[in-house]
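Title: Prediction job returns without error message
Component: structure pipeline
Severity: low
Priority: P3
Assignee: unassigned

Description:
Job completed but the reporter wants confirmation the result is attached to the right record. Sequence as submitted:
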Amino acid sequence: MSEIDENLHQQVMDAADALIARGVCSQREARDPVNQPTINNWVEAMGDTNPRWKNGEAPPAMAQVWTMYGLGGERDPDDPLHSMMGVLTDLGFTGVLGTNCEQTYDRVLRVGELPRLEMRLESVVGPKQTGMGLGYFVTSRSEWFVGDERVAAMLFRVLKYVPKPKVKPDRFVLYPTKNADTAFFWEGTAAGELRIQQCNACGALRHPPGPSCPQCHAFDRGYVVSAGTGTVFSHVTHHHPKIPGHQLPLQVALVDLDEGVRVIAGAADPDVEFAIGDRVRVDFRTIDDDLTLPVWRKL
């Protein structure tokens, strides 16, 4: 679908306007008060060692945790995001893709407090022709309160779209995921550079790339260009299953770069036999106009 019928568009916008006009469509209290055991489990899973979270305060990013439905919970039928998504699904917009999430923290929650969640539909924008297909961007607003005081808010946006017909390519290749966190890496391989993400705040290097620094938690991201040399830490010969775009058996090595991070890649020479401790350097293999992979050559 490249264009939308005006009547269909009007049905979408009428449903959106009705939900937006309702304001707060859904609200619920947390199942349990903010408590230290749940905080302990969360910070352990996240690797967050800030001592504040052991003394009665909850990480702000946990706001959503307290009001989740739980394993056996049932979604509120008035949930505005899912109500609007249901309307679009019924009208043929069957594809769904989460696009972005913006959270605002007014203050930390404290042990013993019982947060309350209020949800409303913020906007429905479209139709938009995207790489996934023609669709609408649906944004909901969630706000958490303790009493009458707002403590956190979240805008969550999804794309509901009509999937494009699948076209079988002449040559199928399994492409890696490219997004805002990894684009610099793949732009680097296309330019013949092995780029390693660096935290601009504390200087720590990390791979694979991510949105925040695991050392200081800053979101200020940059990169350095690796010299491309390192030592084989581990390796494997992949025989099965098939990997589109690759000839099997495939030699794969996890390499300790001289800069201090580990990177995994295949071998430049399919007949090579890696051994732990081998010195290697990076090279690049162009798959097509959209993909260049790093590969290892033995020194």
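Comment from assignee: result matches the submitted record. The radius of gyration is 24 Å.
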